[in-house]
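Appendix B: a complete holo record

For completeness, this appendix reproduces one full record from the ligand-bound portion of the collection. The bound molecule is magnesium ion. The inputs are the chain sequence and the ligand SMILES; the output is the full three-dimensional arrangement of the complex, encoded as structure tokens. No fields have been trimmed.
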Amino acid sequence: MIQEEILVKQVKAEIPKIFAPLLCGQYRNKFFYGGRAGGKSYAFADSLLLLGRQKKLFIACLREIQDSIKDSVYKLLCDRISFYALDDYRILESKIENKVTGTRFIFKGLRDQDSQKIKSLEGVDIAWIEEAQTITRKSWEILEPTIRKDGSEIWISMNREEENDPLWVLLAAHPDERTLVVKVNYYDNPFCPKEIKLQAQKCKENNPDDYEHIWLGEPVRQGNTKLISTACVRKAFELKMSSSASPLVIGVDVARFGDDKTIFCFRRGRWCQRFEAFAKMSVVEVANQATFFIQKFKPRRLFIDIGGVGAGVYDILKDRGLAEVVKGVNFGEKAHQFDRYANRRAEMWDAINLWLNDVLTPELPQDDELFGDLCSVNKKYDRRGRLMLEEKDEVKKRLGRSPDKADALALTFAEPVFEAVPTALYQKGQISWEDMFTKQNGDAEKW
Ligand SMILES: Nc1ncnc2c1ncn2[C@@H]1O[C@H](COP(=O)(O)OP(=O)(O)O)[C@@H](O)[C@H]1O
Ligand SMILES: [Mg+2]
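The structure of the chain with magnesium ion bound, as generated:
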């Protein structure tokens, strides 16, 4: 018994103070991030081994991709078991068990999980997500509801990669009361080997940018590969406008697949007022929603993406006599300035960029998704030196969704819109339902 107490003390002494919250309940999510050699992996391993000796726990060590157990923290746990000579732990080929308490450690890659396989994680007490900067939004969305046992915890260790690391955005950027976020760097690690400190020092002298990223855990500075800089989007989030005399323009990005959402973006000149998102709407429902917005807000223009299913929505709106206001835009078609842009999409996105960088700062509604959409798209140039955007599939892989909000905003820039000529459709001040449904009066009752 005495020996046991000494052992526990010994392990606890090896866990730096900054990691103390790992050993007490209180938080559902424990998010530790920072640069190399902060001691995260060691502290997580030691804490789990300690807790697993106190009571029976089911512990899942997870990462995005695990081709073999060698990729996992299995080896580290084995090393720590042998370092402390914890002979109550039994090391098996692909798992670790505690002979006394029955605690079990398993090791899995999240990318290999589907909704069926993930069920095996439902009894997990503690999930440790290592290298969390590589976790995709999709993996997190499958995992989070699966870790559902009362009192279960998710431990996260991350070396930040970029500004928009999905788990960073989802959990740590604006943590809720159940989420603890702690930054830890090599200088917080009392066990950091001298050699490592020297390497850090060298890096600091020779390459300050690398130092900030590798050793201080700052996300990689955005190079000039991104079309839109995070700084200008942040600036647009700041300003507060309460009105604008500019004509209202609505951009509609229509959902292509079951998962995506149809987005309406409302913009008046420098002021982008709001976004409205609708999931799982049929073409007719989108058309009805658009009709409703036209009637209520009387936009000067409503630009709609007709590259995919949006074409159907456009046809319905045209048929309702709204063609004066509703204009179809095909992202893939030739740009107006075709010597500068590879297609309309690149041209409209660059219009957002120019708008954001205007001396008179515009305003955007503060929205993490919009931020991710705008700042994660890379720019490229075609052989004729014309600006183009990276393929949607690439963006989708990174974001876990398509940048629909930014596409909706881009659509508001399809053509310049001026106040000068009043729209005939609204000349009576109010559009009547009869005007709206010139050919489908029968439908009017539905409204
Ligand atoms: N409890 C500990 N005892 C001995 N060495 C430690 C301990 N914790 C950390 N270290 C040393 O610090 C280094 C960095 O720790 P690690 O957990 O790998 O950091 P991170 O996961 O934050 O990159 C390790 O390689 C090890 O040499
Ligand atoms: Mg580590």
